[in-house]
């Protein structure tokens, strides 16, 4: 049995919409597994993206991979995927710019 989140009516397992109020039914356990999995991934993504600022671009590369994973998975986590990808890419670009400037000035002096 699937319980409607809106009105609490019992519906058959294969029902896609509530028979009482027409609300879209999401299988409960599937929803929970996806939710917890992605939440951990989102937190790790933000941590790696921001850690890249302090300790070099390698951790941001991990953040970039996590961001892309969330993006490809789609759904409600897509927004976090975009933010994590943008932060990670930005941090990597900063470190590349620093490296180029460093080499540039090293050759000048
Ligand atoms: Zn309902």
Number of strands: 2
Strand content: under 5%
- Mean pLDDT score, rounded? 83
Question: What radius of gyration results from the CA coordinates?
Answer: 22 Å
The structural class is: mainly alpha
**Terminal Cα separation, in Å?**
75 Å
Strand order of the largest sheet: 1-2
Q: Percent of residues in helical segments?
A: 55-70%
- SSE run: EEHHH
Number of domains: 1
Helix tally equals: 3
Structural description of this entry:
The protein is mainly α and 109 residues long. It has one domain (2-108). Helices cover 69% and strands 4% of the residues. It contains 3 helices and 2 strands, in the order ββααα. It has helices spanning 28-55, 58-73, 78-108, and strands spanning 2-3, 10-11. The protein has a two-stranded antiparallel ribbon with strand order 1-2. The chain starts with a strand and ends with a helix. The relative contact order is 0.11. Residues 4, 6-7, 9, 18, 20-21, 23 line the site of zinc ion.
């Amino acid at each position: 049995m699937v319980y409607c989140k809106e009105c609490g009516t019992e519906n058959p397992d294969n029902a896609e919409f509530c028979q009482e109020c027409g609300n879209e039914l999401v299988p409960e356990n599937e929803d929970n597994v996806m939710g917890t999995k992605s939440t951990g991934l989102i937190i790790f993504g933000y941590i790696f993206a921001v850690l890249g600022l302090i300790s070099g671009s390698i951790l941001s590369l991990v953040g970039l991979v996590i961001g892309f994973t969330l993006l490809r998975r789609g759904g409600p986590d897509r927004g976090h995927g975009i933010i994590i990808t943008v932060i990670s890419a930005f941090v990597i670009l900063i470190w590349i710019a620093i490296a180029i400037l460093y080499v540039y000035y090293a050759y000048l002096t």
